[in-house]
Amino acid sequence: MSTEMDRTVWQGRIDPEANSDRWHQRIEPLTVKAIPGCALIGFASDAGVARNRGRIGAAEGPTAIRQALAPLAWHRQNPAYDAGNVRCNGDALEAAQQALAERLAPLLDAGHLPIVLGGGHEVAYASWCGLASHLAREESCPQVGIINLDAHFDLRDHAHVRSSGTPFSQIAEDCQTRGWPFRYACLGVSRSANTQALYQRAETLNVMVREDRDMHVAALPELQNDIKAFMAQCDYLYLTIDLDVLPAAEAPGVSAPAARGVSLALLEPLIETVRDSGKLKLADLAELNPTFDIDQRTARVAARLVHLLTLNG
Q: Is the pLDDT of residue 160 over 80?
């Protein structure tokens, strides 16, 4: 587990004009007494993807996202920090998830907005555990909503193998154990990539489902209203973005490329709706696989989404 900021990934052009800073000039290493800001933390893990028989390489995602984010223009008012990485050693997924959760809870306690850079989508269970640990110290039954932009439900049975395909079934079980409601919205679902059993489980768990074929520009106002209605039931939000929700042409470097997907042009206003709700506590991006990326397309999309999520901070 790395806690130090790696300056070698934060490189970029320096412009001579005033007020021309870029991320690599403003990002700071996280310190204990840092004032609240955006805190980036990497989850360098392939273990869940490997268990799920996906394309290996997502462990290098955090570095690729940082490198793509470094030269982007700085438009924030508040600081941004690099909180280092949690790295999964071999198949030690559960230990890595616990380590990330233990790193996230203090960040949340300190008032930061953590954005986790994956790594496979097994990051979602770790992110949830960190958020739940933080909220449990403040409330007995917090009203938390999970919004997942993803081609997959990731609700597979986790009784035998926990992987990148099981985090939300694990979270549902954790909510049941805690006596908390499980509020889960999955947007961008591909019917061809999810079995009937998964659709049945989503129905049983009362998941809000929007399929990729129903997510188009003409439907944007309705989608935004649906998200607002979902958020109205929640006091806190956790946003998780699996980059395989995007079309393969826009995001080729993922563990499971999408044949159709949902365009970045449509996802951005939905993400802004969540960001501007005032309820967002935590976000993560998953499944960037630099091994299969083309011209850094996927890394650039991921960096743009980090920039978008933090734009008003």
A: no
Neighbours of 127 (CB within 10 A): 30
Total count of domains within the chain: 1
Residue 174 lies in a domain: yes
H/E run at residue 282: strand 280-286
- Cα 57 from Cα 75, distance rounded (Å): 31
Burial class (CB in 10 A: 0-12, 13-18, 19+), 50: buried
User: What pLDDT sits at residue 158?
Assistant: 87
Q: Report yes or no on 2 lying in a domain.
A: no
Does 36 map to a domain? yes
- pLDDT range class, residue 140, cuts 50, 70, 90: very high
- Please report whether residue 83 resides in a domain: yes
**Long-range contact list for 212-218, CB < 8 A, 24+ apart?**
212/151, 212/188, 212/245, 212/258, 212/260, 212/261, 212/262, 213/260, 215/187, 215/188, 215/262, 215/266, 216/266, 217/265, 217/266
Residue 17 CB contacts under 8 Å (≥ 6 apart), including other chains: none
Q: How far apart are CA 112 and CA 249, in angstroms?
A: 34
The whole-angstrom separation of Cα 26 and Cα 122 is 30
Give the max Cα distance, the chain: 58
Give the structural domain span for 41: 7-309
Q: Is 19 helix (H, G, I), strand (E, B) or coil?
A: coil
Token pair listed for 243: 């980059």
pLDDT digits (tens, 9 = 90+) for 174-188: 999 999 999 999 999
Q: What is the pLDDT of residue 2?
A: 47
Burial code of 79-88, b = ≥16 C-beta within 10 A, e = fewer?
A: bbbbbbbbbb
Give the CATH number, domain containing residue 177.
Answer: 3.40.800.10
Average pLDDT over residues 209-214: 98
What are residue 39's DSSP bridge partners? 81, 114
